Amino acid sequence: MFELPNGTILGVLDLQMTLEYFDFPRIFTCKNSTNQAYLVLSTFDDEDSCGWLYLPISPKRLNATLCGAVTLRDAFREPEGGYLFTVETFVGRAPVVTHVFPEQLSDSDLPSVGYTLNVAVSGDESDGVLTPKTVAKVYRRETFDYRIFPDEHTRHEVSARKLGTILSTTQELIDALGQTRLGTPTVRGPLPPELLQKTSVTVSHSFRGSFGVQFRASQPNDLFDHSLISDVLAEFSYLLQAADSEDLLSNKLHALKGRVASKYRRLLKQLFDINSGLSFDWGAVASDRGGEFSLSREQVRRAYMIVDRIDIAMADEIEVRGQLVGFNSRTKRYEIRATEGPTNYAGKVADDAKISVEHPAIGDFYIARLRMLVETQSSSGDELIRWVLVGLNEA
């Protein structure tokens, strides 16, 4: 079983990037609590033990090695500090760490002459920020960049409250798509913890050039480069490709079912509120997936209006007989008191609502057709129910 040799002179180690993988990481980087980075190479393994070379390395030297400017063999043959470590890890026993000089290394333990890595580093080298495609290959985790205000490259700030809602709504949309991919879409109630674990994403960092953040899947893909979240991001990309086409959006959302339409509508609403478009750069582990997708602010506005109508059209409908206690044709708001029970229904009037009465009168009795929109938080199951008026007839 692969484990880092913590509790040694190397320090408390944390795995950073997996550069080559076969059964377990063969070439990878790690870092200790004092920020010392190591480039690590597997030299042998059997049922009971594994051998490794741990090379202390600076950020600049590491970046030069990752992008192929320094061969992997030269990196280990010419360590910056003049030394490196051999490490042996065992099943059920403490690891053994030995301080060695490069001339003590056997050629059989080193990569072939001229062997280089090819990991493209983007942005400031000192920051070490990698493109989504590179991160996905290195960490074997689905990765995507999210850019808000993609057309405003000098904007580096956004409301904390709005950003928080956009990030949480994105996670909830991913959760909803994950439930649909498993074939069990529901409109109401909390989602199973095992599903939420598979669809969980983390924010690794933010970056400049419009306002952006990078998401990474919490779990790596399997040995066949597959994961549930990879399928989810494919569905997400299809929604973005549908852009503001009513036919494409309608077909897609009706096929996805469940709570996807309400979650996507909410995401578009948050972007619409801050007058922003969206850029989505997906780096996939599998070579046949991934890509760049975007919506302009005008496409966001139109898509929101379309998805809002679709969400209403897909909702469950009830018929209520009651007294009209509020109606505003300008703001498109209504309130009706049901004749049976103390329930009051209030909310917005749908744009395409069928109102058979020319001038609805406050105090008169009507038969209202209402559609129930449910917004559910994925983890807690907390629900917000909205009733949309889609029809009003004389009682």
**What number is the mean pLDDT?**
88
Backbone shape: elongated
* Beginning-to-end CA distance, first to last residue: 72 Å
Give unreliable regions as ranges. Answer: 122-129
Helical content stands at: 25-40%
How many beta-strand segments?
Answer: 16
Overall structural class, as computed from helix and strand content, comes to: alpha+beta
Strand content range: 25-35%
Total of helices: 9
Largest sheet: 6 strands, antiparallel
Radius of gyration: 28 Å
Count of separate structural domains: 3
The main sheet orders its strands as 1-2-3-4-5-6
Query: N-to-C SSE series?
Result: EEEEHHEEHEHHEEHHHEEHEEEEE
Domain DUF6575: 4-184
Pfam family, one: DUF6575
Organism: Paraburkholderia dilworthii
InterPro entries: DUF6575
Structural write-up:
- This protein has 395 residues and is of the alpha+beta class.
- The chain has 3 domains: 97 residues, no CATH class; 183 residues, no CATH class; 79 residues, Copper binding periplasmic protein CusF (OB fold (Dihydrolipoamide Acetyltransferase, E2P), Beta Barrel).
- The protein is built from 9 helices and 16 strands.
- The strands form 3 sheets. Strands 1-2-3-4-5-6 form a 6-stranded antiparallel beta sheet. Strands 8-9-7-10-11 form a 5-stranded antiparallel beta sheet. The protein has a 5-stranded mixed beta barrel with strand order 12-13-14-16-15.
- A hairpin with a 5-residue loop joins strand 5 and strand 6.
- The radius of gyration is 28 Å and the shape is elongated.
- The protein starts with 12 loop residues before the first strand and ends with a strand.
- About 2% of the residues have low confidence.
